[in-house]
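ASSEMBLY PREDICTION REQUEST
Request ID: AP-0331
Submitted by: J.K., bench scientist
Number of chains: two
Total residues: 547
Priority: normal
Notes: Please return the full assembly, not individual chains.
Input sequences:
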Amino acid sequence: MENLEKYRKCFCDIFSLEADSEAEAAKLGSTPDWDSVGHMELITAIEDAFDIMFETEDILKFTSYAEGMEILKKYGVVI
Amino acid sequence: MYLELDQKNKQNMAIIDSEGSKITYGEVLSFVNKFRESVGQRALMFVLSRNCVGAAVGYLGAMANHVVPLMLGAGMDRELLETLIDLYRPSYLWKPVEMVEDEENVLLREYRYALVSTGLPTYLMFEDLSLLLTTSGSTGSPKLVRHSYGNLEAQARNISAFFELDSAERPMVDLPIHYTYGLSVLNSHLYSGATVLLTGMNVLNSEYWDFLKGEKASSFTNVPYSYEILKKLRVFRMDLPYLKTFSQGGGKLEEGLHREFAEYARDTGRKFIVTYGQTEGSARMAWLPPEYALEKCGSIGKAIPGGKLYIVDEDGREIDRPDTIGEMVYEGPNVTLGYAEKREDLVLGDERHGVLYTGDMVKKDSDGFFYIVGRKKRFLKLWGYRVGLDECENLIKAAFDVECACVGDDRCMEIYVTSGQDKDAIRRYLADKTGINSSAFLVHDIEALPRNEAGKILYSVLERREDK
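STATUS: Completed
Returned structure:
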């Protein structure tokens, strides 16, 4: 699977989203279910999908779909 | 005066919040006087609370003036709030200024909160009734826990004793202060003359950590789920020189996690304290002294100072043999008066006389340390928040045309509904009403609910089902 697809799938699965556009607009605090519980589920799903382990500051900074793509670059994951 | 607030150093900071407000003990006293001038008589007041100076000082103003507060989350569902107002008819509301509507009669504005008169007449309440808290706040259940003044004094005194609190403490309080656990941290530290750090943020905000580090927080108190997050955030590697005490309550901490934090505390010269409590016992009833955190891993410890714990069998006879399961009973001055389900109940006196059947099934070891093994009462603690199963059934039945039964564990509520309703809609509805992440709810279709001859739902049959 392409990285973009894998990445988007994490959002769709965790937050029960159907449209790609919904995933792309996802933000902590505004997407239903993206609260602290949803956040930990998302972080774990992305770590598993790309076989990486986030640093503390990146877990805290990961607050939107777009932001996450930037953060993943640090870990050598290009989307 | 409440929490002996008038005996603290007036210049000392009492509360600092992460929204930029702070208040000294002297300013708390001035506020208490202003509050008295606005509310001349004993009355019921709803506090729509956020973790900030404004909410806390309104609560203190009420307590110190014998006005009875009911603590509710400011973010609670509007409809559920209206139901509570109709049922209990408070004479006053204390709420964030941004929630005040044009036509409302504001008597006092301080610290970005407003005292609103509802125009509803005051009514007679039991003279020793001090405070009301919800049992299952998120479902808007009308069932409230009635506290006496003595309950809260005992709570503050006992907790400050076993945590060895003094005025140098700076506890981080992100647990909501409208829940018993968060409120008990606030009360016990104010009683000790300490500086309470209040925030509505959680450990996943980077500003949370800026606030904690900037204000040199000395203790952290939280529910099991937050400890899972802390581990994920690799708190063990963080530089937190001022943070000396980690304390846990609000449900059973998984044993592996308990051990990791106990080892971290031992290796870094910190204290890790596991506690046990419930609203009906004015928060804490048992604690595991930090020196036993490793040796008695998985235990809730023993009764707090001034209290007594024992186990009874089904006939109510005390069990003294080790490793024998029974219901845990607590006796102590922090056992609350009883419940209220309507305003007429606020005249009731003490119905428990210091004895509380906790509903938790426990055993104790040969050294007298208690271990929770199960629960008798119909509620779950989802992500640390107590949620009544019957209340959820009622919410669903009222909103959807279904029969419904709820079971589950503290990880997930299993909801069985008849008549093929949209399962996602039910799940989303519960998440919205309770403010709890929808991953905590799982909805199943069932042809008919299992019932006995008397028509009572057989929850044990549902609990044994394979589709869970």
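REVIEWER COMMENTS: The mean pLDDT of chain A is 93.
SIGN-OFF: pending second reviewer
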